[in-house]
């Protein structure tokens, strides 16, 4: 019992056991020390002086019987009183133990609540527990030190991602300009043109990879303040319209059920990229003349985006890892053109940054089902508030 449950419960049980144990020892000592004290019979019950020896012996036996009865009654009353005292002590010990446990553990509960409120967006906050230099304050100071190191690590990581992206784009731009100069020369060699085409393709892939890194870092750190009202239905229709040539080239059938009620609040740029990545994944890893179904809906508690696609049968264990960077399925997915392995990991990061959920499900018939759930928002309330502010 002591190994399970909360610390408060264990503290209460230990306190009650110790309190009751000391009470039992005290009562036993009282019983032993009071065992020689017996009440004498009342004077009115003492018989008259005996006339002979037999009468005296009979009176003595009578007095002994009376003393035995008095002793038995006293023992009975003492046992009843001690049992009542134990019951009262048990109740008081549990009550006092519970009150003391709450009092002692109250700073720990405050530290736990404050730590839960601190996330990547407010790592600058500290517990700042005041009071005597005891174990609780030492624990709070340790947590504050950990938060300070985490904040410094996050800041350094964001600075590194931003600086590295800009530093890498400069040589890439130089290489691209050198290629343009080489190709622009009069009558360039065929090998030069072929090499320039391959290098440009790789440069485009590197640019795409850098964009993915920056977007992934931004989504993972929640570093966006452009929250606005966004319709998942409009984003889905826009993503399908932008990839219409690729859909037609692959002969894919599209079933779109994008409702107007699927409104959420967040970064329009990130949410648009999230929907595009899900749609791009369904197109790029689909089979020829396959199908895609895109649906958005709302049930009051949240909005959903569901994208299903056909294809080969996939293993659910490997599908569960697609939300991690550079995770792909099979050689066909690894060799997809323009793929960086960041698409669904970016989706997972954007969904998490907006307080939503992502479910990747391998369809038994083949293909993949992607379901994104986000908190819902009411557009009419925002319009009313905007009118009030205006």
Automatic annotation (TrEMBL):
Compartments it resides in: Cell membrane
GO molecular function list: phosphorelay sensor kinase activity
Reaction(s) this enzyme catalyzes, per UniProt: ATP + protein L-histidine = ADP + protein N-phospho-L-histidine
Broad enzyme group: transferase
PROSITE patterns with a match to the protein in the record: HAMP (PS50885), HIS_KIN (PS50109)
EC number(s) recorded for this UniProt protein: 2.7.13.3
Originating species: Streptomyces sp. R44
Record keywords: Kinase, Membrane, Phosphoprotein, Transferase, Transmembrane, Transmembrane helix, Two-component regulatory system
Protein name stated in the entry: histidine kinase
Superkingdom of this protein's organism: Bacteria
GO cellular component annotations of the record: plasma membrane
SMART domains membership: HAMP (SM00304), HATPase_c (SM00387), HisKA (SM00388)
Domain Histidine kinase: 163-378
Record-annotated HAMP domain positions: 102-155
Residue spans crossing the bilayer: 12-33, 79-101, 342-362
